[in-house]
Specification:
Layout (H helix, E strand, L loop, with lengths): L2 E9 L12 H15 L3 E6 H4 L3 H6 L5 E6 L4 H6 L14 H4 L6 H19 L5 E3 L5 H10 L4 E4 L9 E4 L6 E2 L21 E3 L36 H11 L8 E5 L7 H4 L3 H13 L4 E3 L1 H11 L6 E5 L9 E6 L3 E8 L2 E9 L18 E4 L1 E5 L11 E4 L8 E5 L3 E6 L2 E5 L3 E5 L7 E4 L15 E7 L5 E10 L1 E5 L2 E5 L5 E5 L4
Parallel strand pairs: 1-2, 1-9, 1-10, 2-3, 3-4, 4-5, 5-8, 6-15
Antiparallel strand pairs: 7-8, 11-12, 12-13, 13-14, 14-16, 17-22, 18-19, 19-20, 20-21, 21-27, 22-26, 23-24, 24-27, 25-26
Helix pairs in contact: 6-7, 8-10
């Protein structure tokens, strides 16, 4: 199932940010007509307010080839159907304190989930097999699995602060089984995982999306994704050609994935500029057998048949959308994720995040009363959040510049990247950096920001403490099975063993 695409359009029933929201239903109709014109099957996720407007169920039942499911943001009719008072300013309020299930007690979450799934069954005659939301807590997702079962769930792409939502540190793309304690990261062990495959939406640019807003994490991160309304991104034919080429370049270990489509709030007049163009390009790839187009549910079922645990995956881009020679490689497993970046003849580890079955998301069982919603992994290096001013954070090899940076997959679980004399090898439970050059080391470069997690390093152990938006602290460690940590005049560094190897061992935590 290496190269897979889903078309997921989700629909709201009201849009209080517009004086006239009568465009919402026609927008969904145009999206479905476009799919029919190209012969594409798609997934439609209905928000509860749209579900309760008869025209929406009637539309998706009027001969289109669609899979229908739920979009699980909280709206006034859903809260009231669950017997809860509505706290929002409008029937749909984007304020995080009312918009997501994590803004409610666990009993209230259960009541609203039951109301949504029950109403869906009353209207369609069956429970939905797919659902999605920008953010979902593990308590709610676990309850859905136990009570109703789902084939798949989709969640927001990697982003920091956009629209008040932070989902940061999870698998960059592909599919995974979420932890029972933290929905944005994979579970390490089967007994700790939710058995609903999770897929990340919107097709983020693997090079540029991560750095948009670099060094200013207090500001909303900008967007560079496959969404057709963005001029640099999904609305640019050249960018779409580049994305399709690099996202599906044969270097995915388990699943090269992208979601096409757009929410109806953007209005068809804006969506029509990019989506038909995208579909023309997608059609050529599908007809040539280079991409398999599935519904979200089909992708989830295929994933479950193939994998009992989250498989290792990789995404590599051998050039950037501007053709300037920047390259990147993402690797993730159920133990960690790492991102390698190459720019101006330098290669470095831009991002390294650990996964732990012990680490709970901030509002697993307590309701969020903040205007921000943040779910994280455990950072060892965060090239976005640990940068400031002229300091671009990363783990930098102390080695000469080199114009060559090549990536390749090896077997079912390994990604290898070579940069001059330095070789990075990412495996399911370990990351190795090899270089035999005299004096080689790997240097921690960070700005002096309050989010740094490090304590004094021992020879083979780096103790860390992560604090999320709520101030809650979690202790974790990075262990070396080859090499050693040392303090230098420039700060923290990792030096290789006698064979020139540094190996991070992620089996702990």
């Amino acid at each position: 199932m290496k190269n897979v695409a889903n078309i997921i359009n989700f629909a709201r029933g009201c849009e209080p940010r517009s004086e006239d929201d009568s465009f919402l239903l026609p927008t969904l109709r145009e999206e479905l007509e476009l799919c029919r014109r190209f012969g594409f099957r798609s997934t439609v996720l209905l928000q509860y307010d749209a579900l309760m407007i008869p025209d929406y169920p009637a539309l998706v039942n009027s001969g289109y080839d669609v899979e229908v499911g739920l979009w699980l943001e909280v709206v006034q009719p859903l809260a009231e159907a669950a017997g809860l008072p509505w706290r929002g300013r409008y029937p749909w309020d984007w304020d995080i304190r009312v918009n997501f299930l994590s803004a409610y007690t666990t009993d209230e979450r259960v009541a609203m989930i039951d109301a949504a799934f029950g109403t869906f069954r009353r209207i369609f005659g069956f429970y939905p097999k797919v659902a999605g939301c920008w953010s979902i807590d593990s308590f709610s997702l676990g309850y859905i699995e136990r009570t109703y079962g789902l084939s798949a769930f989709c969640v927001c792409k990697e982003q920091y602060g956009t629209d008040g939502i932070t989902v940061w540190g999870g698998p960059y793309t592909g599919g995974y089984y979420p932890s029972k304690r933290n929905a944005i990261v994979p579970a390490r062990e089967k007994e700790n995982q939710i058995g609903i495959p999770m897929f990340r939406m919107l097709g983020p640019d693997p090079i540029d999306q991560y750095d948009l807003g670099l060094g200013a994490p207090e500001e909303d991160q900008k967007v560079c994704s496959l969404e057709p309304v963005y001029e640099f991104g999904g609305g640019d034919p050249d960018w779409v050609d580049w994305f399709l080429r690099e996202n599906y370049n044969g270097k995915a270990l388990s699943l090269a994935y992208a979601q096409f489509g757009q929410e109806n709030s953007f209005d068809w007049e804006n969506i029509r500029k990019g989506l038909p163009m995208q579909f023309e390009k997608l059609k050529k790839k599908v007809d040539a057998g280079e991409i398999v187009l599935q519904t979200l549910g089909e992708t989830g079922e295929d994933f479950r048949r193939r994998y009992a645990l989250t498989p290792p995956n990789s995404t590599c881009a051998d050039d950037d959308a501007k053709g300037s020679g920047r390259k990147t490689a993402w690797y993730d497993s159920r133990y960690y994720r790492v991102n390698l970046m190459f720019e101006k003849n330098r290669a470095w580890i831009r991002d390294l995040q650990l996964y732990s079955d012990r680490y709970a998301e901030p509002h697993l069982t307590t309701k969020n009363t903040d205007t921000r919603c943040g779910t994280f992994a455990l950072p060892v290096m965060d090239g976005f959040r640990f940068s400031a001013g002229n300091v671009r954070a990363g783990l930098y090899p102390d080695a000469p510049d080199c114009a060559d940076f090549e990536t390749r997959t090896q077997g079912a679980d390994t990604l290898v990247a070579a940069w001059g004399d330095v070789t990075f090898t990412a495996e399911e439970r370990a990351l190795s950096v090899q270089c035999a050059a005299p004096g080689f080391c790997l240097r921690f470069v960070t700005a002096d920001v309050p989010t740094l997690p490090y304590h004094d390093a021992e020879e083979t152990v780096l103790p860390m403490t992560f604090r999320d938006f709520t101030g809650s602290a979690f202790d974790y460690r990075l262990r070396l099975s080859a090499g050693c940590f040392r303090r230098t005049a420039d700060g923290l560094a990792v030096f290789p063993d006698g064979e020139g190897r540094i190996t991070f061992d992620f089996t702990e935590n």
